[in-house]
Fold this protein.
Amino acid sequence: MLEAAGFEVHVFPATGAGGRALEAAVTAGHYAGVLDLTTSELAEEMVGGLCSAGPDRLTAAGFRGVPQVVAPGGLDAVTFASADRDAGRARLQVVINAGRTLARTTPQENDRVGRDIALKVSAARGPAAVLLPLRGLSALDREGAAFWSPEADRALFQSIRNWIAPSVRLIEADLHINDQEFARLAADVLAEMVGAAPGR
């Protein structure tokens, strides 16, 4: 959708290394806008998962004043080594392969990561928006799927509402994060922001 609107798009995987590369590239001034739909590395950092991008994740765009659209994609899960029994204890788990297991984040963790998102985005020097997909955060977090937990998701959404600054546009969508309509909404909001940014 962004490419059709004339933008050159680069994709960074939310693997830890991908998040660090994104933050470095934005800090270096290489991008006119950031569409940050998979912020799962924030939960990885908070809970001690394998895919943390460090404490500075979700800070570069705000510091540089680069327009950003943020969504809490993937915050229903944290990645652990399958052999790490303690990390996933008392959690819902999905085994990905011999070396990786996904564990469901709790309402308490989602409350904390929601505050982290809200405070980081609220510090932005440029245009910023947070989009909340009220019907789920990943393929595993939808009704009937393994990590479906309305309680945990509500804790995340309410924490973001509680801590977000009035300067940040907060959009609540009765959609799942993987819905095409959600993708179009996110792309449209970013395109509008970038088009209105100085120098565009």
Notes: The helical segments are 17-27, 40-47, 60-64, 107-122, 150-163, 180-196.
